[in-house]
Amino acid sequence: MGDTSTATGKVVVNRALSLDGFIAGPGHAMDWIAGALAADKIRAQAAATGAMLIGRRTAEVGDRMQAEEPGSVDYPFSGPMFVLTHRPPEPPDPKVTYLTGDITEAVATARGAAGAKNLEILGADVAGQCLRRGLVDEILVYVLPVLLGDGIRFSPPGLPRIDLEPVSSTRSGAVTILRFRVRK
Asked: pLDDT tens-digit profile of 126-157?
């Protein structure tokens, strides 16, 4: 079941995580992640990904980081990117497809674009919606050796219990990489 070469890819929530459970620091800060993961691990994850579904806030934080420090959001992915939002920006980014519908429809659209590869889910709100609806197959977590003290938690308040099955745990430098399968 853990084979990524199957006819259809998996829906994978991909998260960097501080040891105290935050995926972003105060003010949605994500600068603590830059450079933490080895380039070969990033390339392997990007190669397994056929499309990305991102929340608008996460997309805006990434755009802001890139504008402030070019190259800081260097993820070697060039496939289709979908941003789920109630308010597409004006003017829209021509490299992004904006989706405004239900999360189940958004996942189906993005998953179709991913082909046989994985659909990667980024963003706390979008991931929480996907988890609530049972749309996630795996959770990939990069645990960084830092305590942020405050910020955006890994899971939103009110998320019901979700049982996970450990698939793998590895190290890449100071980062611990955990992969879990969502029990359905």
From this structure: 999 999 999 999 999 999 999 999 999 998 88
Q: For residue 63, count other CB atoms closer than 10 A to its CB.
A: 14
For strand 22-24 and strand 152-153, is the pairing parallel, antiparallel, or unpaired? antiparallel
pTM score of the predicted model: 0.86
What is the rounded distance in angstroms from the CA atom of residue 25 to the CA atom of residue 118?
Answer: 27
8 Å CB contact between 140 and 73: no
Is 76:46 a contact under the CB 8 Å cutoff?
yes
**3-state SS track over the chain:** CCCCCCCCCCEEEEEEEECCCEEECHHHCCCCCCCCCCHHHHHHHHHHEEEEEEEHHHHHHHHHHHHHCCCCCCCCCCCCEEEECCCCCCCCCCCEEEECCCHHHHHHHHHHHHCCCEEEEECHHHHHHHHHCCCCCEEEEEEECCCCCCCEECCCCCCCCCCEEEEEEEEECCEEEEEEEECC
Domains belonging to the chain, first-starting first, are 11-182 (3.40.430.10)
Of the candidates 12, 9, 4, the one whose C-alpha atom is nearest the C-alpha of residue 180 is: 12
Round the CA-based radius of gyration of the chain to a whole number and report it. 16
Cα 41 to Cα 38, 44, 74, 90, distances in angstroms: 5, 5, 13, 35
